[in-house]
Design a protein that fits this description.
431 residues; alpha+beta; Rossmann fold; Dna Ligase, domain 1; D-amino Acid Aminotransferase, Chain A, domain 1; 13 helices; binds adenosine monophosphate; binds glycine
């Protein structure tokens, strides 16, 4: 059998789970991860590379005879890594720059959805020179809450939900002053607020054929009961009972098929993972956002449920052969608890020794995110530190199993949410 040397780009919990899954493939030759983390090092060789320096990445690929590049995070994709490497005849799993605009530009995504009749919130777009017009538009509309979104990538810090005219005024001024947001907010999307429950659906596409891999619910806020600041995600569970077979069919038909076909018509065929962030509203599922990669921590609950060989699916995607494949998911629930450094998503301390990592079995997985090796110890090195993932025949079982496993790990100033999956449990008990 042919084997493939793979270079995986990224360093988070998502990439640790991808490395874990790729390592189960008979098709895997050597796995390299750039830059990786102590978790990924268990499955391949971590390489020090600046992932935004495409020339350096390409040189490494030639030197190490890499045959497939798998890109974890959005930045390199939005900046054209897939284009750069494909021009050099290197196979890449991930969308090209034009296709990654679905995440890289909210204005593009919204105009695209309007054009192809994909359900989403009503919106209007303003340039940074026209914030006065944006303000007048919102005052005339007089419906709150209202959502303000920076057009470009802002690492989750470019979306603001305002509850009054006063708040809008203050927020517009703050965005104008915020130097970090100035590029992303050179265009501003003003959007209707959607009421409902959120869920993330993950699709694999080769540009023509697409399959739903699975779906999960993230927990974006730092505090229990969805309170406090937005984060990268504090936990996830899958499958989320907010979806059922008929909603999935509707999502496939009204959202996914139209997106894949629409992108073909835009001559920006979408390949790789498409993450569709949805709000399940009283009027049906609507798109909140598209992302051009796996979610983190959603990936950490999806991949353990996937029965397919992930590398085989990725190769089929890069060779436009996904029509030959079908996706197989097991019938277990999975729950992921993110262990973070107290203080995240604002300032926090690093370098705390982590203990208990050696007590896990095949049933429970611990994926590293912000960790670092220091001598023979593993220490904290980021806001989101570890992801503890466990499964069960029921959602309740998976959640309990995951929280039991969390007890085995300790580090100073460890913070985690205590209510991951509770929305799902509530929904099941109300059915
Ligand atoms: P985004 O980066 O577009 O996913 O937005 C971040 C979060 O803001 C989403 O996960 C939602 O919780 C919330 N959000 C964004 N847009 C809307 C909307 N139109 N209505 C309600 N909530 C929204
Ligand atoms: N967990 C949300 C994201 O990956 O964007």
């Amino acid at each position: 059998m042919d084997t493939y040397n793979v270079l995986l780009i990224g360093a988070g919990g998502r990439e640790h789970s991808i490395a874990w899954k790729l390592a189960q493939s008979e098709k895997l030759g050597q796995l390299y991860i750039a830059p990786g983390n102590p978790g990924t090092a268990q499955f391949g060789k971590n390489v020090e590379l600046d992932i935004n320096n495409f020339e350096a990445v390409s040189e490494f690929i030639n030197k190490a005879a890499v045959e497939l590049v798998v890109v974890g995070p959005e930045d390199p994709l939005v900046n054209g890594m897939a284009d750069y490497l494909r021009e050099r005849n290197i196979a890449v799993f991930g969308p090209e720059k034009n296709a990654a605009r679905l995440e890289g530009s909210k204005e593009f995504a919204k105009e695209f959805m309007l054009k192809y009749n994909i359900p989403t919130a009503d919106f209007a777009v303003f340039s940074s020179l026209d914030y006065d017009d944006a303000y007048k538009f919102i005052v005339l509309k007089d419906t709150y809450p209202i959502v303000l979104k920076a057009d470009g990538l802002a690492a989750g810090k470019g979306v603001f939900i305002c509850n009054s005219e006063e708040e809008v005024k203050e927020r517009l001024l703050a965005i104008k002053k915020d130097e970090k947001l100035s590029e992303a907010a050179s265009r501003l999307v003003v959007e209707e607020f959607m009421e409902g429950e959120e869920v993330s659906v993950f699709v694999i596409s080769d540009g023509h054929t697409s399959h739903i891999l699975h779906y999960a619910q993230d927990h974006k806020r730092i505090g229990d009961g969805d309170t406090g600041l937005n984060t990268g995600g504090m936990g996830a569970y899958s499958p989320a009972p907010v979806l059922n077979a008929s909603l999935l069919e509707q999502i496939q038909f009204e959202i996914i098929d139209r997106t894949i076909t629409g992108m073909q018509l835009e001559e920006s065929a979408y390949t790789g993972i498409l993450y569709v962030g949805l709000m399940i509203t009283a009027d049906g599922p609507k798109v909140v956002e598209y992302n051009c990669r796996f979610g983190d921590p959603e990936c950490q609950v999806i991949l353990p449920s996937l029965k397919n060989d992930l590398l085989d699916l990725m190769i089929a995607s890069t060779e436009q052969r996904l029509d030959e494949k079908s996706v197989q998911i097991d019938d277990n629930y999975r729950c992921c608890i993110v262990l973070a450094s107290e203080g995240y998503p604002q300032s926090y301390e690093k370098g705390k020794v982590i203990s208990g990592l050696d007590q896990f079995d095949d049933e429970t997985l611990v994926f590293h995110a912000g960790t670092k090796k220091k001598g023979d110890k593993i220490v904290t090195n980021g806001g989101r530190v570890l992801n503890v993932v466990a499964g069960g025949k029921t959602l309740r079982g998976a959640i309990e199993h995951a929280y039991e496993a969390v007890k085995k790990i300790s580090f100073e100033n460890c913070y985690f949410r205590k209510d991951i999956g509770h929305k799902g449990l509530k929904r099941i008990s109300n059915l």
